[in-house]
Fold these 4 entries.
Entry 1:
Amino acid sequence: MHITQLNRECLLHLFSFLDKNSRKNLAKTCHKLLEVFQDPLLWSLLNFHSPVELKKDNFLLGPALKHLSICWYSERVKVCNIEDWMKNSFQKDFCKRHENTVSDFLLDVCNRCPNLLSLTLSGCGHVTDDCILQLLKNCPNLKSLKLENCVQITDHTLEAVTLHGASLRTLHVDFCRNVTQAGLERVREKCPSVMLRAERSANMIPDSKPGKKLMLEKGSRKLVQL
């Protein structure tokens, strides 16, 4: 039996075991398989591990999307995880090229994926409070928001959770060094049903204020403010 002789349900099940590239390549072989690739039911879950993946055409965004994860790390470059004044030229160039990639993608999610249930972001240093605010407003069914090492996230995101996160049940802001203990306490007070986790966040040294820098004293691990 040829693969195209399978019914739609079987083909969808088969596609579900393939990664995004394999699905796209298979869809190129005939019109019937392209229709399966374009079926919204196939795209309820999306995982990304590189900024480049967000710009490919091997996936679909739509109302069927329920679970989204964007997580990446680099051994060569700690992307967006350290202040600009500490980055070498390669790091600065890398960050510049991907500065708006995740934010632009998430705004697209806001417009196309109103039924999103869970969002996980890790190492996405350019994601802003405003971006998360828009997601909370446009995805009212969001139940799980997990942010890790997103350095631009501040108490404004925590405030947005108290105002627009009616469906939220899980909130992680691990290693988000610019949230404060006061902000976390407000979430605990106003949203007692939310399971809040903030490992190594409010107790970490936040980004330096404009005009100031934090530097390591020579020969020690002590941070001094200039």
Note: The domain at 43-73+83-197 is CATH 3.80.10 (Leucine-rich repeat, LRR (right-handed beta-alpha superhelix)).
Entry 2:
Amino acid sequence: MKDLRRYLVLKYIQYLVLSSSNAISTFLGLLGSLYTIILLQSAKVSSKSTTVLISSLAKADILVSVSVVSEMAVRTFDVSTSSTAFPSALLQNLLTANAHISCLLLSCVAFEAYLITFFPTESRRLRTVKNARLTSRIIWILVTAECALFQADDLLKASSTSAPTRSPCVLLFHFSSTAAALLRSLTYFLGILLRTVNVYIYYKIFFSMSNR
């Protein structure tokens, strides 16, 4: 559990403290996720709701791995920029999806820590493996839908120049562009809210443990 706590601290710093990811934090995050996935396969680690959330958090870094490997392949084989416009947008959307999944899962872990600290008995029915798996699945589905919308918007933007002015593609482009812009604004404010809530939760937990 100490290793899992260190991993959570690393992920909190990476996604909820740092304003943007960098090469060092990304590399350490990938190493930590790989180690955590291996660690969770051990029979010594009991299957609890927290470990289910941490496992889903670690698996989210697969998206980062795909993006990093693909970018290295593009640079190695010197692929032209024009032919990689669509893949580049996809890889960027995968990184965005990873960040959003990680922030939501970290917030779920923080909320569970809050329930364990202040409502251990009352919240026992909520803190089940089944609910944790369901929560993780819902988060993945929602963020996958978000990623699909962003990718469709990028695709329509790339093809809008060659489309006729009154074609249905133009109407679809305006709709997807508006929806994507609204969703980006929503996720931006949601990210600020999650950071604030996480700070408040751990502030309460820290002073509660100090008083004890």
Note: DSSP finds seven helices and no strands in the chain.
Entry 3:
Amino acid sequence: LMEAWEKGVNPEGNSTNPSNWDFSNSFFFAGTVVTTIGYGNLSPSTVAGQIFCVFYALFGVPLNLAFLNQLGKGLNAHLITLERWVQKPGRAQVVQTLAVGTFLTAGTLLFLVFPPLVFSYVEGWSYGEGFYFTFITLSTIGFGDYVVGTNPNKHYIPVYRSLTAIWIVFGLAWLALVFNV
């Protein structure tokens, strides 16, 4: 029972174990459910929570897919505008290649290169461990061997895990767009 408590999220708490359900944990948990990453370190610890999670996932996963699809369409519309600008008569192939290269480079830096720097600084991981976490997360594999904001010896800013969840959503959208391109 104690092991389930340590791994599970419980909004009630009791005299020996305070609630570990704050906004940051709930936002991160909700994000890992709807993105199907499921690190394995957070799970509902009550039957009512587990039942709610099933229904949340039944509706949340398809809604998240629809959201990512719309986000991808919006980003794609901007890419089409850029493509039309680049492909106007008189624009060299070099400009076209430069535009695609800039898009890929900016996204790679924003979603795959810089985040491991942040994670290695905040979590105390090596850059390689941070990159591994980044890739395993954005590929939605989510082993759970590395998870942000879980070290009990560290004090995290309250929005750290929420910002990570937002990075995950936009990183997934960018990757989907890269696969589309």
Note: The longest helix spans residues 47-86.
Entry 4:
Amino acid sequence: AMAAAAAGAFSLREVLEAFKRCVTEQREVLLEPYLSGWRGLIRFLQSLGTVFSFISKDAVAKVSLLERHCGGEQGQQYVSLQSMVRHELAPGLAALRARSDSGCRTVLRLHRALRWLQLFLQGLRSGDSRTSVLCTDAYNASLAAYHPWVVRKAATVAFCALPTRDAFLEIMNVGPREEAVAVLGEAIPYIDDVYSITQELFAQHKLLDLP
């Protein structure tokens, strides 16, 4: 499995492991495993062809911006989402709102996309309907609100070309279908946890609508 991961292939286990490492005992969300989880999710999106490139390209840009923050002079302030929020809010909310390259704004964009993936993966796991329907429902309940009409229209058309649920479970790269469903079942609660901690943190500091 490691060889496949090294070759840049997607494996759901990798995403599971990353999100598992995200949350500390103090309920802080560590940025390094968060970005690691996202790199896996991006590979997942890319393995589906161009359908999701409007989301994956954006996610790639956001992840590399955050990597720059983490690797920069202020890197120690970007260990967790909580430390990042404290650091970036120190000059005040107005100053933070004026910045287009802040970690908070960047995480918020990933956070919204994570909601869509979370809902879509949940749908894939229960597998009641066609993947195009699952994906569209997940999108309409999350990201659609933040996209202009043109993007929404293009997305909904693109989702119609999605492979079947079986093909998706195969893309997960964790063995037979039952195994993929089991690993999804294991991964989703960790993703949910990271999502809800982030949502609460950003709501508390009035960061959910950063421009």
Note: The radius of gyration is 17 Å.
